[in-house]
Amino acid sequence: MTVILKLTWHSMDDYRTCKICKALNGYEWIIESGKNVFYNTLTHPVYGDVWNVNEGSRAHGHKSDNCRCHITSEFDLSDLLRKTEKLYEAVKAEH
After folding, report:
1. 25 pLDDT band (50/70/90 cuts)?
2. Is 39 left (phi over 0), alpha (psi -120 to 50) or beta?
């Protein structure tokens, strides 16, 4: 499995943070290479649809103006880099 994208839920850790957001803190969604799985909504196995690309957090069942949670992303492009270097070497060898 080659991970190309990891999305991580981050919650504030204070009295204003709801129990759902606290439970989601650190939860990760992994997108592997070779799969076309860029969704508009992120779903958690217990809490259901918790994030919408257009609305932000839906962990409270609706858009909440009080929610201060956010999603971070980490890209791993090392597989793409290896394939690009291999292609470059093949083209270079032909000339």
Report:
1. very high
2. beta
